[in-house]
């Protein structure tokens, strides 16, 4: 066994604070406990922050996310065993979205993995699941020649998301080292990452995000985070860049049709219910062995049942929004029955009408179907629509 856990930070009482906490405080942020971290919910108006990301760009502190580095001769094999997707053919400098399944076919977490070298990866789990993912890698990796190194406590993550994000990054970019030897920011494609220097600060610059816009996520040591935030804020000031909190991040990701763990994803939810069936299908075709495979084969079969629930988008046909937990119904009186549940819902700031994601019986999931949603005792009509709700113009 060559697995090593270094600098492991266990779950603690009370929320942790990021290296940017004092910056947010000085900006007048309202805070919330999210995933065990005290994070900015909004700075002034979350709808204005949302619109700024769609029209210019928003600056986010995402330092609550986990960072786990996996390195060694069998790093790829460990990831192939521990996660649903395959990683051996992932090119250096590229990223992949995947999930970690449990032995019941539910999900420990969804996460992004960057291949930063031939035998080295950076795995980024969600804040609330970072400790669980680290423990699972430790257990699942005992037979592999690879090291597992927890870096969450020492790492900050700043995101710049929106149409002007690339121009802001370009203004402060000193150096970029793409895997193919290039140095032009335009060569950093979506779901790719490379070492970079911005204003003298070394970062891992990734073209990834959770808003539906073009943008970047920047991994940096804690001690450099305040200076990096100030650099990006100043460079973006005249372009309309504003600090944005978790409230805007949630409404942006919902418009973009992106799932949120604890809502559309969870330990008792099948990936086939959560809209990730194609990812699992590919794994079952191409991989002989990975944790959760047997349970996911059964889930694949169950997904063919007529009563199976699947994730859909809903467009409100009135002004009243549905919130998470609202029940989808059909029929009247004694014939009325539940056919689904809303997982996330908001009045969309971009589209001007309510939107929601929901689990619904597959027989009721055809695009264009009108479904009644019980909102505090009164039903409102919603139309089943394709996801995502919003796509940026190229």
From TrEMBL:
Keywords, comma-separated and alphabetical: Aminotransferase, Methyltransferase, Transferase
Cellular component aspect of the GO annotation: cytosol; glycine cleavage complex
GO biological process: glycine decarboxylation via glycine cleavage system; methylation
EC primary class: transferase
EC number: 2.1.2.10
Aminomethyltransferase C-terminal domain location: 310-390
Domain GCVT N-terminal stretches: 20-281
MF (Gene Ontology): aminomethyltransferase activity; methyltransferase activity; transaminase activity
Regions crossing the membrane: none
Keyword check for Transferase: yes
Signal sequence region: none
HAMAP family: GcvT (MF_00259)
Oligomer and partners: The glycine cleavage system is composed of four proteins: P, T, L and H.
Family designation: Belongs to the GcvT family.
Name the record gives this protein: Aminomethyltransferase
Gene source species: Rothia koreensis
Gene: gcvT
């Amino acid at each position: 066994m060559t697995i090593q856990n270094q600098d492991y930070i266990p779950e603690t009482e009370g929320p942790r604070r990021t290296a940017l906490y004092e910056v947010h405080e000085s900006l007048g942020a309202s805070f919330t406990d999210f995933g065990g971290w005290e994070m900015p919910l909004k700075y002034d108006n979350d709808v204005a922050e949302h619109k700024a990301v769609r029209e210019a760009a928003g600056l986010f502190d995402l330092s609550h996310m986990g960072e786990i580095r996996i390195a060694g001769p069998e790093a790829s094999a460990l990831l192939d065993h521990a996660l649903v997707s395959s990683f051996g053919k992932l090119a250096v400098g590229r990223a992949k979205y995947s999930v970690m399944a449990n032995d019941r076919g539910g999900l420990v977490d969804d996460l992004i993995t960057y291949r930063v070298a031939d035998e080295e990866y950076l795995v980024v789990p969600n804040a609330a699941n970072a400790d669980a993912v680290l423990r699972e890698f430790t257990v699942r990796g005992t037979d592999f020649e690879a090291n597992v190194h927890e870096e969450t406590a020492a790492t900050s993550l700043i995101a710049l998301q929106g149409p002007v994000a690339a121009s802001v990054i370009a203004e402060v970019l000193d150096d970029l080292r793409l895997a193919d030897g290039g140095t032009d920011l335009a060569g950093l494609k979506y779901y790719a990452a490379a070492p970079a220097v911005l204003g003298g600060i070394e970062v891992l610059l990734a073209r990834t995000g959770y808003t539906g816009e073009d943008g970047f996520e920047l991994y940096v040591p804690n001690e450099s985070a305040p200076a990096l935030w100030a650099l990006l804020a100043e460079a973006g000031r005249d372009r309309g860049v504003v600090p944005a909190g978790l409230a805007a991040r949630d409404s942006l990701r919902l418009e973009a049709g992106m799932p949120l763990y604890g809502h559309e994803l969870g330990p008792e939810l099948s990936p086939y219910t959560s809209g990730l069936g194609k990812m699992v299908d590919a794994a079952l075709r191409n991989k002989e062995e990975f944790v959760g495979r047997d349970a996911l084969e059964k889930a694949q079969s169950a997904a063919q049942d007529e009563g199976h629930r699947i994730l859909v988008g809903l467009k409100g046909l009135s002004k009243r929004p549905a919130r998470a937990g609202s029940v989808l119904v059909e029929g009247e009186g004694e014939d009325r029955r539940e056919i689904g549940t809303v997982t996330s819902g908001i009045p969309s700031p971009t589209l001007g009408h309510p939107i929601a994601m929901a689990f619904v019986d597959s027989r009721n999931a055809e695009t264009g179907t009108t479904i009644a949603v019980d909102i505090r005792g009164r039903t409102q009509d919603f139309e089943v629509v394709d996801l995502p709700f919003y796509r940026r113009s190229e």
